[in-house]
# Entry
Amino acid sequence: MLINSGGYFHTLEQVKKQIRDAQYRAVLGANREQIILYWNIGKVIIENTKYGAKFVENLARDIKSEFPNAKGYSARNLKYMRKFAELFPEIEIVQAPLALLTWYHLQLLMDKTTDRAVYLWYADKALESGWSRNTLMHQINIKLYERQVLADKTVNFQKILPAQQSELAKETLKNPYVFDFIEQHEGIVEREIEDELVANIAKTIMELGTGFAFCGNQYHFEVSGKDYYIDLLFYNTKLRCYVVIELKNTEFKPEYAGKLNFYLSAVDDLLRYGSDNPSIGILLCKERDKLTAEYALRDINKPIGVSEYRLSDFVPQELADTLPSAEDIERRIKSKYSIEDDEEAPPASQS
# Structure
């Protein structure tokens, strides 16, 4: 048998995958043990508050004396451990899923969220999407939870889709979508925005959410000898359906829903396989009047959602309040290059 045959390379790939999987499990196991250790230390600190206000500082000093080469036991980090144990007194939650995230992710969530349910929601999303710490921070700063969970959404999913798919599809939608990597300028047209979305497709998909696979823009199909073009076509592996996105650089108009309904009929007929769920349409508009959109969708027979979108220079006050100031950015840059203790800021590989 030749060493360069296809069978050999298939075997090689199998071995390489086994090695990578084992390495990943080893890292994951070490991380899990660290998180559980930190939770246990936090629990001990909570149970021994009788030793006074300086207890944590004294504990940090004595740990350093006993384990001079050990990192991660400064007074600041011990206080995080205490806060972590206070927030999650149940070891079951800590063991899964929180132990699958790094301590730097968990610290960030303690700093940026005040509600336990919101903390767990972001933790689940970070795990589901494989977010780095910086990506997690970005999603919190642009208020993903508020835009995806608490948003006032205009959809007709519940009338058209089966209950399970309807709920999942509705959870996927956001209002507004924030494409902060596209610079707003006077006279910008839809095609420019679309081109930027495609040129930055990884960022676009990150904003759309988990499971989106890009199929094409200005996706061509023909009906009765006439050409039609879909702005953006995706397939969502979680929803198991095509997602047609139409982009409008104006306020929502009722006729937009009729056109998107036509596109969805064509996609269902020309592209959809037997195992696929009904295709879903999303109208992204510069502005949206909720009542007008509800009337427009009331008698539409295809599942459609209507949302607004924002570009980089449009930052609502509720979002602006969460963005870092120039002083915050300068302080972060300085701290990156002058770290006094290992837990004051994560290493570059964790960011």
Residues 336-345, 347-351 have pLDDT under 50 and may be disordered. The chain has 16 helices and seven strands. The radius of gyration is 25 Å.
